[in-house]
Specification:
heterodimer; A: mainly alpha; Sodium/glucose cotransporter; 23 helices; 75% helix; globular; B: mainly alpha; 4 helices; 83% helix; elongated
């Protein structure tokens, strides 16, 4: 009984951290492994290839517009892959497959949450963003409003989201390099920082997009191969795969139960019979929902953060400005949704495959029966099991390349917010020339690179499990309501958008700090003492954001408010028809 | 954009048609996606036994095809929107452009 309880507690803890893993965050503390030269060589090949692309892209990056949008010549299909690449981070690959290996169906519930935001983005945002915006989502949010306050808000929203996401990625990179390459944490942080700076600095959006596309193809290809090999072992029968996994999980659950019963004086046969039913029930529990959803409010709140946060992530939104028109923008979300959905099906198969081929193989297990290198290694060990050492090297290199590509995208979006929103629009009043704007973007890129490395080092030993959920919650509570209401509700005013937006931003941060993942796990307060009892603040902070914008807009009787409302018709005509929209290809 | 052009487009019957059709379609599909996803989450929260029921004699549970169906539904509903928007709505937009931008 005691074992069962500690097992359940362990599962609950794992799922709590899984809360942040999938979108690219926490890989926990990892132990350094033996140096893996195959993986390092493959990664070096990837870097060499992407350097060529950067050189080619650098020749095309002459203006600020090239830097922000890659010249607008990216097709819907390519952009779809790049968006999918932004979303399929290392931790979503390793984290979701590990969650499936540990708790089966719960891993599926979790990945579904990350997918369902995409149709909402498609129906309500994608084409309107493309029609109204040029370089950043602030172009859209500030379309009919007083520029300075909205730009300052949007740049704050962007930088805060980017910062939390970046920290999570940098720390993840450091942990991964210990696991995958057997190198020190510091190496990872510096390698990621330097390479990312080279991509963004010289190749701008063109290089960032192509690095992301290549990585997405490698990751999808590698994961497809693994899922195929797993399914082949079971004659392509999901039932056979599930049956075997349940059998193994039951046997694993039986061991401690039998030992416990024998300590109580039973002989082995009697102990086995006595614990058989309980062990079988534990084994079968991976086929249905377990402890993932603690209470309905947490479930809905977390679901809202994922669903609407997707529509407020600055590094995702900026990708809609790289395609030539609304038609391609729509195609890109359809491709992105398809690839991401397919990827989650693959990680599900990989997780179940790991139960059969990793959990039963002593080569991958430590003395206590856990995975060597920690729970997140499920997919990595499976790569070794189905494809040998070379394929292991390949998957390790791809997992690391994934972090690099995501970090480059984040940095580019942070740099755009500073150079386009703050420098060109607020400081220079929209009169900055392209060359100086480009210079500011590059300086910001270097600054962000250095900050990212510093934060990566500072947070090495910290518990960062909450950071990606926080980034999603802020995106859903600050960026999304402002974008959504400014585009769809005539009554929104400058004052309403800025006050409501900041209320959403502040409340999501404050509620996260007051929740268990920071209050207890980071600040070290007693278990159960967190003032905010739910896992995600989005349900509350999003409401605060929306109500704040609405309330301060209807109370706003200033002259500016009249101008804001009068501007709605022209904005709506452009957002619906695209007439007058910036042609991404040659601003 | 000049004010008179905005007015001309805004008063154009096909613009009214486009706006109404697209917004109705978008909101219906959004509602459908919300119902499917939050329905699934509420099922997970309140009726775990239903999802953990066995389908037939094997170990495969009701939850497995339902989970897969939610993923496929998400892709399909996006496809449905993009298909209609890229044909019907874009044609309407083209007609409006032709009519007002002579």
């Amino acid at each position: 009984m005691k074992h069962l309880r500690s097992f359940a507690l362990g599962m609950a803890a794992l799922l709590a951290t899984a809360g942040a893993m999938a979108a690219g965050a926490d890989l926990g503390q990892a132990e350094k492994q033996a140096t893996n030269w195959t993986a390092i060589t493959m990664f070096a090949v990837f870097v060499a290839g992407t350097m060529f692309i950067t050189k080619w892209a650098a020749a095309k990056t002459k203006s600020a517009a090239d830097f922000y949008t890659g010249g607008g010549g990216i097709t819907g299909f390519q952009n779809g892959l790049a968006i999918a690449g932004d979303y399929m981070s290392a931790a979503s690959f390793l984290g979701i497959s590990a969650a499936v290996m540990t708790s089966g169906f719960d891993g599926l519930i979790y990945s579904i949450g990350f997918l369902v935001g995409w149709p909402v983005v498609t129906f309500l945002m994608a084409e309107r963003l493309r029609n109204l915006g040029k370089f950043t989502f602030a172009d859209v949010a500030a379309f009919r409003f007083s520029q300075t306050p909205i730009r300052v808000f949007a740049a704050s929203g962007t930088l805060v989201v980017v910062a939390f996401y970046l920290i999570a990625q940098m720390v993840g990179a450091g942990q991964l390099i210990k696991l995958l390459f057997g190198l020190d944490y510091m190496y990872a942080v510096v390698i990621v920082g330097v390479l990312m700076m080279v991509y963004v600095l010289f190749g701008g959006m063109t290089a960032t997009t192509w690095v992301q596309i290549i990585k997405a193809c490698l990751l999808l290809g590698g994961a497809s191969f693994m899922a195929f090999m797993v399914m082949m072992q079971f004659g392509f029968s999901p039932e056979a795969m599930f049956a075997k996994a349940v059998e193994i999980k039951s046997a694993l659950a039986a061991k401690p139960l039998v030992a416990e019963a024998m300590k109580g004086g039973m002989d082995q046969a009697a102990a086995e019979t006595a614990s058989a039913a309980k062990a079988a029930a534990t084994g079968f529990s991976i086929m249905g929902p377990g402890s993932f959803v603690k209470d309905p409010i947490s479930a809905i709140s977390f679901g809202m953060a994922l669903m609407f946060g997707t529509a407020g992530l600055p590094h995702i939104l900026m990708r809609f400005f790289t395609v030539p028109n609304a038609k391609e923008a729509r195609k890109s979300v359809l491709w992105a949704t398809t690839w991401i959905g397919y990827f989650y099906i693959l990680t599900f198969i990989i997780g179940f495959g790991a139960i059969t081929f990793v959990l039963t193989n002593p080569q991958f297990l430590d003395a206590k029966g856990g995975l060597i290198g920690g729970g997140n290694m499920a997919a990595i060990h499976l790569a070794n099991a189905v494809g040998g050492n070379v394929f292991l090297g390949f998957i390790s290199a791809v997992a690391f390349a994934t972090i690099l590509a995501v970090v480059a995208g984040l940095t580019l979006s942070g740099a755009s917010a500073v150079s386009h929103d703050i420098y060109a629009t607020v400081i220079k009043n929209g009169k900055a020339d392209s060359a100086s704007e480009l210079k500011v973007s590059r300086i910001t890129t270097i600054a962000l690179g250095i900050i990212a490395v510093a934060l990566g080092i500072a947070f090495e030993k910290q518990n960062i499990a909450f950071m990606v959920s926080l980034a999603f919650a802020i995106a859903a509570s600050a960026n999304f309501p402002v974008l959504f209401l400014s585009v769809l509700w005539k009554g929104t005013t400058t004052r309403g958008a800025v006050i409501g937006g900041f209320l959403g931003l502040i409340s999501s941060v404050v509620l996260t700090v007051l929740s268990a993942s920071v209050w207890e796990a980071v600040l070290g307060n007693a278990k159960g003492s967190a003032p905010f009892p739910y896992t995600s603040p989005a349900l509350f902070s999003m409401t605060i954001g929306f109500v704040g914008i609405w309330l301060f807009s209807i109370l706003d009787n200033s002259d500016r408010a009249k101008e804001d409302r009068a501007g709605f018709l022209a904005q709506q005509v452009r957002s619906e028809t695209g007439i007058g929209a910036a042609a991404a290809s040659n601003h | 954009m000049q004010d008179d052009l905005v007015q001309r487009i805004a008063n154009h019957p096909q613009y009214q048609e486009l706006k109404a059709k697209r917004s109705r379609f978008g909101w219906w599909l959004t509602a459908a996606m919300m119902i499917v996803y939050y329905g699934f989450i509420l099922l997970v929260a309140f009726n775990k036994e239903f999802l953990a029921q066995r389908l037939g004699d094997g170990v495969t549970t009701v939850g497995m095809p339902i989970g897969l169906a939610v993923i496929l539904f998400t892709i399909a509903i996006t496809g449905i929107y993009v298909r209609r928007a890229n044909s019907e709505f874009d044609e309407l937009t083209e007609q409006i452009k032709k009519a007002v931008l002579k």
